[in-house]
Write a structure and sequence with these properties.
The complex is a heterodimer of chains A (about 375) and B (about 290).
Chain A: H1 2-17, H2 24-36, H3 42-53, H4 57-71, H5 117-123, H6 131-141, E1 150-159, E2 163-164, H7 166-175, E3 185-192, E4 195-200, H8 206-220, E5 225-230, E6 234-236, H9 246-256, H10 266-282, E7 287-291, H11 300-313, E8 316-321, H12 334-339, E9 345-348, H13 352-363
Parallel strand pairs in A: 4-5, 4-7, 7-8, 8-9
Antiparallel strand pairs in A: 1-3, 2-3, 5-6
Helix pairs in contact in A: 2-3, 6-8, 10-11
Chain B: H1 7-16, H2 23-35, E1 39-43, H3 49-60, E2 64-68, H4 75-78, E3 80-82, H5 84-96, H6 102-109, E4 115-117, H7 119-125, E5 130-134, H8 141-153, E6 155-158, E7 162-165, E8 171-176, H9 184-188, E9 191-195, H10 200-210, H11 216-231, H12 240-252, H13 260-265, H14 274-281, H15 285-293
Classes of the chains: A alpha/beta (about 375), B alpha/beta (about 290).
Chain lengths: ~375, ~290
């Protein structure tokens, strides 16, 4: 009996090592479940574990793998107990072009030279900063909170005018022994719309990825914001970004996102996003922000189709493009040109100031 | 609720109601019953998550109590509310009768008879019962936290009345379409089951079971077509519910078997997007039928 329990605990440990969040409470449920079933029957143990230890569809594939490795050959396979990938401490943005020959490209108001250093930094292209400046930008970014435009919710809250609130009115009335009392009113509460950020982490976005993800981290804190990265794959990273500490969040993100600096097929990944998440409701009535340079390796026609679909689902579609600020930039590249007809607001995304502007547009300010 | 010994028995009971389950779901239901844990069901629309709750209710001979979640749902819609008009009426009647004892009046006003039980409270008070919390992913996180509390204690405290505890916890089925991630704390309380689309044999069995009057050949052809459509890259792959709808529609048209032309004409019962229907029209449905038709 004890030996059997030890085997089950070992299995749970292997699962945990593979990244399934098999907490103590789940483990307890697992043991009671096996107890109710036939512990010597493989299928029973399989289902007991799958039902109690897994918490989502993503866990199922890992569960399958670890179960096969652990119980498959009869002896626990050592390779199943693979350690979690070592989290890198920080995403280091490779300096693609730090040379001084970009002087002319630097964007900012004409008065930038007279403003304080922080003010100048706000307008600088984040791709062209040195290490110290980048650290300062990080601090600036940490102050963000992204809230979507307000929408009326089904919930009501006390208000001066609006419909009569029977709960509070009657309570008040009862308190006075039935004497007619003031009519208390309530109105529909307003809630911010959901914001969905799709951050491009492909190769062409490498100089911006760190800053944009830190922006996403700040934006996702405490508000109703969902974040996905798009590269060669679509990755849901809201949970990784829920870490309060930006550096820990970035480390968790680095471990979760397998496709830094690959190519990107925006159209295909957007379709995957819409099929798996967007159409079910995540994009419905939300403010969807794409942070990408629109560099499409795939078919622009597919991207155009998917953007139209997204536009029909979402409340507003905003595209923030870090390259937009460059002098001489025109959205003629296949992907961007295909996407633009379905975009409500096309904004810059290269500097802290541009991201501030983006936050304002998300909140419902007139588009740029 | 009669005693249930094992997954096999659950499966047999559910099959009697016309709901066919595979091994995993049978184990899931059995554990939900015996461990008193809610069953968290995730999967595409139309794979039978909600139907499971009604089947369980029927199999256990217990009432099904359904709570449909939506954005902004709160305790007064889900748990209980006071019946204000009746409270006022009572107050007025007491006044007319010349009763002025304030303490007594107040005690009477918050009597159980003035309490309107909403689904959650009803489920706690009815035993046995099956509680279906449908589309939990549509509610807000505040409601999730509230539900978590209720599902771990199976009791609720009403300030004016005290704590009501379920004599025997209801069987709870939660469904989610994954429009957003449900909080881990809630899932941890539950058994988790992912619903896949059934394979050909099981889906055919389900159709035959649900539509005994439909010709065997038609059922087989429709199932084959739907299975083939699911392999295509559609915006909304059809669920089992759609398979049944389609077979029913064709049967209503008097068909005992289906050819490609008739299939295309009735595609509206299965595919709900113009893009999907166009794509299906471009497919060689006759070939699918020929493979199964031999």
């Amino acid at each position: 009996m004890l030996a059997a329990d030890a085997a089950l605990l070992g299995f749970a440990r292997a699962l945990r090592a593979a990244g399934v969040d098999a907490s103590t409470e789940r483990l307890h449920a697992f043991l009671s479940a096996v107890d109710l079933l036939r512990p010597e029957v493989r299928a029973d143990v399989y289902w007991a574990g799958r039902l109690t230890l897994c918490g989502g569809r993503d866990d199922l594939e890992r569960y399958e793998r670890v179960f096969a490795a652990y119980f498959g050959s009869g002896s626990p396979a050592t390779e199943a107990v693979r350690a979690t990938p070592q989290p890198r401490l920080r995403l280091v943005v490779r300096d693609a072009h730090t040379g001084g020959h970009h002087e002319g490209d630097r964007q900012g108001p004409p008065a930038a030279a007279l403003a304080s250093p922080a003010e100048v930094l706000r307008h600088r292209d984040v791709a062209e900063l040195d290490a110290v400046e980048r650290e300062q930008v990080r601090r600036l970014l940490a102050a963000f909170a992204l809230r979507g435009e307000a929408r009326r919710s089904a919930r009501r809250r006390p208000a001066r005018r609006g419909q009569v609130d029977p709960h509070r009115t009657v309570r008040e009335l009862l308190r006075r022994g039935g004497e007619p009392a003031r009519l208390l009113r309530h109105a529909r509460a307003e809630r911010p719309r959901r914001v969905v950020l799709l951050v491009d982490v492909s190769g062409s976005m490498a100089p911006y990825a760190d800053a944009l993800l830190r922006f996403a981290h700040a934006a996702a804190r405490g508000t109703h914001t969902e974040v996905f990265t798009i590269g060669t794959r679509l990755t849901h990273v809201t949970r990784e970004l829920s870490q309060r500490d930006p550096d820990l969040a970035m480390a968790a993100l680095a471990a979760a996102v397998p496709d830094w600096r690959g190519g990107t097929r925006l159209g295909e990944l957007l379709r995957e996003f819409l099929n798996r998440w967007g159409q079910r409701g995540l994009a419905r009535g939300a403010v969807v922000v794409l942070l990408s340079d629109g560099w499409e390796r795939g078919d622009p026609a597919l991207l155009a189709d998917q953007m139209r679909r997204l536009h029909r689902l979402a409340h507003r579609v905003i595209w923030a493009n870090p390259r937009k600020a460059r002098s001489g930039y025109a959205p003629v590249a296949g992907g961007m040109a295909a996407a633009l007809p379905s975009v409500d607001a096309f904004v810059e995304g290269h500097s802290v100031a541009a991201l501030e502007r983006l936050a304002a547009v998300v909140k419902g300010a007139d588009d740029a | 609720m009669t005693h249930i010994d094992g997954p096999e028995q659950v499966r047999a009971r559910l099959e009697e109601t016309g709901y066919l389950v595979d091994e995993g779901l049978a184990v899931a239901c059995f554990l939900a019953l015996r461990l008193h844990r809610p069953l968290f069901c995730e999967g595409d629309a139309g794979v039978g998550k909600t139907a499971l709750a009604s089947a369980l209710a029927e199999a256990l001979d217990a009432p099904l109590i359904r709570l449909q979640c939506h954005e902004g749902i709160d305790a007064s819609q889900a748990l209980y509310d006071w019946d204000f008009p009746r409270q006022l009426l009572h107050l007025r009647a007491a006044e007319a009768a010349g009763i002025t004892d304030a303490d007594r009046l107040e005690g009477e006003l918050y009597d159980r008879r003035f309490l309107i039980a909403r689904p959650l409270l009803r489920a706690l008070e009815t035993h046995p019962s099956v509680l279906l919390v449908d589309e939990i992913d549509r509610a807000d996180d505040e409601f999730e936290a509230f539900l978590l509390e209720l599902l771990s204690e199976f009791s609720v405290t009403i300030p004016e009345l005290g704590t009501l505890r379920a004599e025997q916890p209801p069987v709870v089925v939660l469904t989610s379409n994954r429009t957003r991630e449900v909080h881990d704390a809630l899932k941890r309380r539950c058994l988790y089951h992912w619903f896949d689309h059934p394979g050909f044999a099981r889906e055919l069995a389900i159709v035959r079971r649900r539509l005994p009057g439909v010709s065997a050949r038609l059922a087989e052809q429709v199932t084959a077509l739907v299975q083939a459509l699911r392999g295509e890259d559609l915006l909304k792959p059809p669920g089992v519910a759609e398979t049944i709808d389609w077979a029913q529609a064709l049967d209503a048209l008097g068909a005992t078997e289906v050819d490609a032309e008739l299939a295309v004409a009735t595609l509206g019962s299965v595919l709900k997007y113009r893009e999907d229907a166009e794509r299906a029209r471009g497919l060689d449905l006759a070939a699918v039928l020929a493979v199964r038709g031999a």
